Amino acid sequence: MLLDNSVKKLLNEAVKQLKGAAKRNFIAKTVVELGFGGQELAIKELGWTRYIIRKGIKELKTGITCIDNYSAKGRNKIEEKLPNLLNDIKDIVDSQSQIDPSFKSQRLYTRITASCVRKQLIEKYIYSNEELPTSETIRIKLNNLGYSLKRVAKVQPQKKLPETDAIFEQLAIVNKDADSDPSILRLSMDAKARVNVGSFDRGGKSRILTEASDHDFNPKTTLTPYGIFIPELDELFLYLTESKVTSDFIVDILSDFWESQRKRFAEVKTLVLNQDNGGENNSRRTQFMKRIIEFSQKYELNLRLAYYPPYHSKYNPIERTWAVLEKQWNGSILDEVETVLNFASNMEWKSKKPIVKLVNQTYQTGIKLTKKAMSKIENQIERLTDSNHESFPNLGNWFIDICFVKT
């Protein structure tokens, strides 16, 4: 048996007009009139609760009506008593972004705690101590208004070059062209901060009781994760090294990656490399440019180096994967190299596990080419000198093309 929609609407509207015993009496009589299975029908079709139905039927049969003690059901919300309270709380918190008297910053020198807000409500908004709720209630109201405690977000770059916006505009063009062309493969490359290997606390929490050294001195060794990420496929390749990350290391792992994956990308003729403009891989680093040209010639590939501007490397796609890796091993003791490798191998990015390798070679630092040798390198590359940007037509430090030339 199903009730007509108009009947259901009529019954529920009637119930809304009633309260307490009168409401239960109406519900009980309606269920009785529905006959056998009336309770289940009322629950399913009208959304009435079994508790109210049974209580109403019991009152109907016995003639004894329960008296509802509404005064014992709790107090009204404080904003019903003080209708301007929430707006006043918002005004207090939002006002903390005003300029200070010295005009050196945009914040007051006050920590906005719940007790501080309560104090300011009394001092500035003429509330009495008796009528205001406790600091704990103020804290709950702050959370409800969206002012819950949060860590300071690292979103403001330390510096911004005049050409930063122009670089990002050009990056958008280069990356979009790469992603839409099957003959071009875009790779995002970067290193993560070094990891101390030893019985050290890395923060985080664990379900297994672990004990760490009380000081992070004298690690057994340190490992630097370096990643190659394919944004289009959400695939990550991690290389960990105990050595310094040098120009030679970067190109060696790029070669290792391509040796293992080139058969999958037989149609690819060009690699776009998204990187930050770091010390070992920037376009003016002589050893890096020498090795990357050799890579191009060896594998008969065209290369396009597309760098993110300084202090903005966080926009490089691979940066998103580091948070997942950090979360994977936080709360654990990375006491051996094998432990680090195992944790890295078991992380997941978009339901895919990375391919992880340990690089055992030690790399020499400080290798440089002479100015004469670098001048030959410059003849084999093409730097962007027309970016279609009126203010910054020359972005040659950030966009470099290397074309494979048959000999």
From TrEMBL:
Report the InterPro entries cross-referenced here: RNaseH_sf, Transposase_36
Q: Which residues form a coiled coil?
A: none
Which is one GO molecular function term here?
nucleic acid binding
Q: What is this protein called?
A: ISAzo13 family transposase
Source organism per entry reads Brunnivagina elsteri CCALA 953
